[in-house]
Amino acid sequence: MDRLETATLTDGGENHVFINCEKGFLYGRLNKVPDSPGLVILVGDTHGLGASDRQLGLALRQAGLSVFELNLLTKVETHYHDIHHNVPFLAKRLGLFLDSVKAQMEEGVLPYQPYGIYAANDVSPVAIRAAATHAKC
C-alpha cells in the first residue's frame, strides 16, 4: 500500500470518507468547521469509534475545531485475532493517512492548518509512532 485512494460522500455538512486499502475500505468522517484554527484526527481501531470518542468529537467541534474520525481497520480486519496490537502495521496505515491529509492541504482540498492526533487505549502507541515521523502533527 503506497498511497490511499479516497472517495467522499457529503451528507448534511458531514463528509463520509471511504479509503481504499488492501482489505477493503477504511471509514472516516470529516466534520469541517468554518474558519477552524485546526484539525483533530480521532483515531480508532474498530469499525466505529466508541461513545466517549464521539462525545469528544462533538466537544471539539463545539470549541471550533474541525474533526476527522478515522478507523484504522476495515470491517473484515476487525475480526482478525490480535490485529489491534500490531503497532507497526497500524502506524504505517496511519502514516499513509497523514501523508494523504498533507497532500490534500497542499492541493487545496482541505484548508492548510495545524493538525493533531487523538487516540486512546490500544491505539495510543500507534499514534505516537506515526506522529514521530510526521513533524507537523
Number of helices: 3
Q: How much is the average pLDDT?
A: 81
**If you compute it from the alpha carbons, what radius of gyration comes out, rounded to the nearest whole angstrom?**
14 Å
What gross morphology would you assign? globular
Which key phrases capture this entry?
137 residues, 6-stranded mixed beta sheet
Task: Please characterize this protein's 3D structure.
It is built from 3 helices and 6 strands, in the order ββββαβαβα. By secondary structure, the chain is an alpha/beta fold. The protein has a 6-stranded mixed beta sheet, with helices on both faces. A hairpin with a 2-residue loop joins strand 2 (14-21) and strand 3. It is globular and about 40 Å long. The two termini are 22 Å apart.
Write the layout of secondary structure elements.
Blueprint: E1 5-11, E2 14-21, E3 24-31, E4 39-44, H1 51-62, E5 66-71, H2 87-106, E6 115-119, H3 124-132
Parallel strand pairs: 4-5, 4-6
Antiparallel strand pairs: 1-2, 2-3, 3-5
Helix pairs in contact: 2-3
Summarize the model shown.
This protein has helices at 51-62, 87-106, 124-132, and strands spanning 5-11, 14-21, 24-31, 39-44, 66-71, 115-119. The protein has 137 residues and is an alpha/beta fold.
